[in-house]
């Protein structure tokens, strides 16, 4: 496994959102809204653009997030991933609970792992795939082996495509800092391992009777090196926090994938690239889904700012940590975690 178990987090079961006609007290948040009329928007990078490398560097320094187009992942595969994800979350609630994740595991059905860090619950449910999804999927469709096999095949294919794309993007990002593939090879997942990559997270945001009072996914940064996110073409839900502006909406862009930087990238780049604070809100007309592929190094590789290489010639801002150690710090300090490994 390339990630720690979630014993640091308490497992909290979702509720049956379909049966809710109002937002219960347990799920009521006070939201500081986002200005939907903002003209600012995240950059879009065309991977076929000859200037892609410098555009990526600019996007990573200024935004920590961008849309990527001409990424080489087929629209048929993206459509199928959305269809399968919708199929899973449309199962009866009792059926989904059969695959409820246990206290010492990450995989399966449940609420966002960070739910227990907040006094109120979120308006979302998730399904996490760490190694093979086979066991959990068996609990969801016990009598339909065709459906089970198809779901697993689609998700495995998608993960492979995402990890290939993440690798390409990582080379471009590191390359833009003057780092070579040799410099960075130890922080990349190792294909020889049983399960070299981070988890795949399927997110579902059911229709909400009062979106002004509910939170889909609370503000957080990802711990990964980078996250590749697919979002359904439903009303805008993802928002990022930009210093000096506030919450900026990330509108769906047909065929594009979202690339967002995680804390490990901020550490490796010695703060040159920023991990992005983001959250998801909900709506009262459409069931939204998103699929996040968290890409990162093997669990036990020590990561420190790559200052002696490339053109990161400053004192290291962060001490070295493994992904596993950092997840423990994150479970305790959430969005303040990076402060705790500052030199
Ligand atoms: O649903 C989204 O747009 C965001 C998902 C996300 O941030 C996550 O899974 O970490
Ligand atoms: Fe995230």
UniProtKB/TrEMBL annotation:
Cofactor(s) needed by this chain: L-ascorbate
EC numbers listed for it are: 1.14.11.15
Q: Could you confirm whether the keyword Cell membrane appears in this record?
A: no
| Gene Ontology biological process terms in this record | gibberellin biosynthetic process
Give start and end of each Fe2OG dioxygenase domain: 195-297
Question: Which keywords accompany this UniProt record?
Answer: Dioxygenase, Iron, Metal-binding, Oxidoreductase
Family matches, as InterPro entries = DIOX_N (IPR026992), IPNS-like_FE2OG_OXY (IPR044861), IPNS-like_sf (IPR027443), Iron_ascorbate_oxido_reductase (IPR050231), Oxoglu/Fe-dep_dioxygenase_dom (IPR005123)
Pathway the protein takes part in: Hormone biosynthesis; Plant hormone biosynthesis; gibberellin biosynthesis
Question: What GO molecular function annotations does the UniProt record carry, in alphabetical order?
Answer: gibberellin 3-beta-dioxygenase activity; metal ion binding
Please state what class of enzyme this protein is: oxidoreductase
Among Pfam families, the record links this protein to: 2OG-FeII_Oxy, DIOX_N
Q: Which family does it belong to?
A: Belongs to the iron/ascorbate-dependent oxidoreductase family. GA3OX subfamily.
What is the designated name of this protein?
Answer: gibberellin 3beta-dioxygenase
Q: Which organism is it from?
A: Cannabis sativa (Hemp)
Upper taxonomic classification of the species? Eukaryota, Viridiplantae, Streptophyta, Embryophyta, Tracheophyta
């Amino acid at each position: 496994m390339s990630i720690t178990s979630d014993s640091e987090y308490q497992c909290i079961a979702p509720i049956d959102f379909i049966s809710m006609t109002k937002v219960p007290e347990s799920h009521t948040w006070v939201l500081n809204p986002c200005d939907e009329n903002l003209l600012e928007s995240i950059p879009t990078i065309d991977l076929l653009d000859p200037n892609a490398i410098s555009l990526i560097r600019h996007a990573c320094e200024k935004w920590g997030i961008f849309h990527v187009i001409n990424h080489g992942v087929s629209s048929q595969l993206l459509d199928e991933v959305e269809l399968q994800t919708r199929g899973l979350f449309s199962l009866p609630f009792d059926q989904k609970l059969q695959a409820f994740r246990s206290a010492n595991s990450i995989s399966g059905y449940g609420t966002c792992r960070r739910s227990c860090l907040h006094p109120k619950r979120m308006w979302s449910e998730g399904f996490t795939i760490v190694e093979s999804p086979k066991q959990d999927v068996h609990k969801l469709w016990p009598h339909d082996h065709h459906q089970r096999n198809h779901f697993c095949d689609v998700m495995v294919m998608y993960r492979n495509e995402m990890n290939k794309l993440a690798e390409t993007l990582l080379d471009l990002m590191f390359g833009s800092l003057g780092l070579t593939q040799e410099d960075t090879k130890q922080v990349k997942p190792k294909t020889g391992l049983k399960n070299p990559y981070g988890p795949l997270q399927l997110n579902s945001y059911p229709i909400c009777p009062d979106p002004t009072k509910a939170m889909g996914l609370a503000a957080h940064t990802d711990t990964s090196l980078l996250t590749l996110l697919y979002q359904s073409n439903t009303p805008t839900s993802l928002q990022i926090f930009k210093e000096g502006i506030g919450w900026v909406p990330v509108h769906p862009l047909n065929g594009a994938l979202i690339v967002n930087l995680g804390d490990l990238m901020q550490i490796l780049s010695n703060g040159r690239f920023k991990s992005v604070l983001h959250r998801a809100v909900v709506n009262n007309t459409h069931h939204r889904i998103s699929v996040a592929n968290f890409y990162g190094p093997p669990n036990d590789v020590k990561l420190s700012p790559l200052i002696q290489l490339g053109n990161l010639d400053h004192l290291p801002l962060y001490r070295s940590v493994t992904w596993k150690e950092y997840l423990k710090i994150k479970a305790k300090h959430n969005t303040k975690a990076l402060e705790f490994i500052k030199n």
